[in-house]
Design brief:
Blueprint: E1 17-22, E2 31-41, E3 52-61, H1 65-70, E4 79-89, E5 99-114, E6 117-131, E7 144-149, E8 160-162, E9 164-166, E10 180-187, H2 189-196, E11 206-211, E12 217-223, E13 228-232, E14 240-244, H3 256-263, H4 279-288, E15 290-291, E16 303-307, H5 314-326, E17 330-331, H6 336-343, E18 353-358, H7 360-366, E19 371-372, E20 378-379, H8 380-390, E21 393-398
Parallel strand pairs: 15-17, 16-18, 18-21
Antiparallel strand pairs: 1-2, 1-11, 2-10, 3-6, 3-9, 4-5, 4-7, 5-6, 7-8, 10-14, 11-12, 13-14, 19-20
Length: 400
């Protein structure tokens, strides 16, 4: 299904959203139109912070990156940031259940040698804890393996593990839901059928797509249509307003709203429009970008200029790199692992080429504290330059 085919309708306001049931067995972009809407209210939402909890990571191997960063480093890491916990079978051949948790804003409270085992360390952390009910099961494997993932320590694999976790298996209250209102909705037959029989329909993955003024899809978010209400629309005519009382938590943040306003006019054509936003807004901007065109033969050679005036955080660095190589509205990776993949082939710019990094001192100073322990203690800036040069890019750093 092409979104551009559903943009036009004979009204004084544009179609900004499509409601689509994805065809799981079909190819990319295939699906069934359930409706199109003029606006959506309540979509942007910052979820309330998770209640803080205390977890004890018992028996972490001393040689793991986590322990080396937290306990064995000359400058121990205390703020781990967001991470993930997985509990999977120690023997994958058993095919036992797996369970997953998100750890929000984790911070190290204290640590000590594991009693009776000097080769291991117990680490106490404070964090918001949320179990991923979608991917995980409810049972534990008979021989569980506990793995912890913190991108602040390592971005491409587990940071460490432990033998058990104290405080993890406790009841957690359900957080209240916030409704989403589809304003000025022209329902298609499947949505009309659902409104006539408002019962939960298993197996209907519904996606709400945001369109720009050209009909190009900007972003998509999944909605649960278990509970819906409809009424004549405030916009009049034959349109309806639909309230989804429990749509789920797949929402763009409040920081996305001003970013979407810029992108609603089409893919940006001017550089550095993202620079006005804070870290969260820049992350939302990066979510809307697209990796450059793929092909068997990438474009190599030439000189590209990176404007480093606004590369004051990790996302800003990635956005500046993407704009330098592919232009506004594009990206050259969402993290350093992606950048390395892009440099190995695919996008329209591959080594060898020259990158002149103007105002390199800004990123060097701003990211000096962003140390990557799995990269020999290099900063994020240093590792970015290291990856570029290792893959054959001539990097010219110009300060000031």
């Amino acid at each position: 299904m092409r979104s551009e085919e559903h943009v036009g309708w004979e009204r004084d306001f544009p179609v900004r959203y499509l409601l689509v049931r994805e065809d799981i067995d079909g190819g990319e972009g295939e699906g069934v139109l359930w409706g199109r809407c003029a606006e959506v209210e309540g979509l942007f939402m910052d979820p309330p912070p998770l209640p803080r909890e205390v977890l004890t990571l018992r028996g972490c191997p001393r040689e793991s990156l986590l322990v080396r960063a937290v306990a064995d480093s000359a400058e121990p890491v205390r703020l781990l940031g967001d991470g993930m916990l997985s509990i999977e079978p120690a023997d994958p051949s058993t095919g036992g259940p797996s369970r997953f948790w998100d750890l929000e804003d984790a911070a190290v409270l204290t640590q000590w040698p594991t009693p009776g085992d000097p080769g291991r360390v117990d680490i106490v952390v404070g964090a918001g804890v949320r179990e991923d009910d979608y991917w995980g099961g409810k049972r534990l494997p008979s021989s569980p393996q506990f793995d912890l993932w913190f991108p602040s320590i390592r971005g491409d694999g587990p940071s460490g593990g432990c033998r058990s976790i104290g405080g993890l298996f406790t009841p957690r209250p359900q957080r209240p839901t916030q409704p989403v209102h589809l304003i000025g909705c022209e329902p298609a037959a499947p949505l009309l059928a659902l409104l006539r029989h408002p019962l939960p329909r298993e197996g209907d993955p519904i996606t709400l797509y945001r369109l720009d003024r050209h009909g190009r899809t900007m972003a998509g978010y999944h909605l649960d249509l278990d509970t819906v209400e409809a009424r004549p629309s405030v916009l009049g005519g034959a349109l309806i307003d639909v309230t989804i009382t429990d749509p789920g938590d797949d929402r763009p943040s409040l920081a996305a709203r001003p970013v979407w306003e810029i992108w609603s006019d089409g893919v940006p054509t001017l550089p550095n429009q993202w620079a006005q936003f804070d870290a969260e807004g820049r992350s939302e901007w990066l979510d809307l970008t697209r990796v450059g065109p793929y092909g068997r033969q990438g474009l190599s050679g030439g000189t590209y200029h990176l404007d480093g005036q606004h590369a004051t955080d990790r996302t800003g660095l990635l956005l500046a790199l993407g704009e330098a190589l592919l232009g506004p509205g594009a990206n050259y990776g969402r993290d350093l692992d992606d950048v390395e993949d892009c440099l190995c082939g695919g996008p329209s710019v591959v080594p060898p080429f020259t990158l002149v990094w103007h105002h390199a001192d800004i990123a060097r100073h701003a990211l000096a504290g962003h140390v990557l322990h799995h990269c020999g203690g290099r900063s994020y800036f240093e590792e970015t330059v290291n990856i570029l040069r290792e893959k054959g890019v001539t990097v010219v750093l110009q300060d000031g």
